[in-house]
Amino acid sequence: MLKAISKQREHVEQHGKHLIRRGWRTWIHWENLPWLNPLFVGFLKTTGLWRRGFANVLDVQVEQTELAFTDLPELFDGFRILWLSDFHIDKLDGLTEAMLSKVGELDYDICILGGDYSFHHVFTDEAAAHMQQIAAALAGRSEVYAIMGNHDHYAMAEVLDAAGVTVLLNEHRSLERDGHRLHLIGVDDCHYYKAADWHEATAGLNGDGFKVLLSHSPEFQNKIRHADVDLYVCGHTHGGQVCLPGGVAVVTCASVPRHCVKGRWQHKTMTGYTSRGVGASSVPVRFNCPGEITLLTLKAENNHEAHEEHEG
Ligand SMILES: [Fe+2]
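Above: inputs. Below: predicted complex with fe (ii) ion.
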């Protein structure tokens, strides 16, 4: 059953856009400077890069990664998580079909939607229709879970819930195989809504079991003790979305170290993975940073191949 909207999320949804606060950098933070986007669009259209940038958005890539853990129960060795985040789907014509076509070729055990379903910070009927189509396609293949991002309103959680998706709003679900458990801990958005709550999400959770934290943004790592989490899966950064040659992000949109902006990372004993996301936002283009469909395979450390991957 879908959890009721939290007071924090409800307050932010009702009072609309506020500043992203970063100390003195608040006043030069691009998310607080909406006039930058029209300038960038004008530049792209003038230089002929607009069409190429949008074609890059539709060229979403599959990224398959093995992650090894010493404390993963053997019965979950080889467990595959399909992670799809940052759809921004209502302004990206053709992306739903391109993504579902590639997902259809993949084998996995569960699917998790990582938030940011709308292009702008508003709920739209177009975004709801696309997400209903996506949820219907995915729900026939595995259990589907979802968390909420900084672009999302509670109305989208209601849409996903009605489509058969289990939406985790500061709560967890435990998967069990012959007495061994893997916990999916889903927190609400920490970037814009400031609504993520670790204690609420883990209430009633016993100490044993493998813990997977699902957070839209990697920034929640600043709020938890690394020892509490085995795997932290997130998105939000888009990997930079518009990058220099070599994939160097110009803007990361997250207060985390650069190595946490995309791909696999490690913080003490906690392994993290940040997806570049499926879609694009602010401006519907990508350069030197393709969108990503993420397939994570969890491996028990004792398995030889997993060990080599981890050491590499
Ligand atoms: Fe996003």
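Residues 111 and 144 are 5 Å apart (CA to CA).
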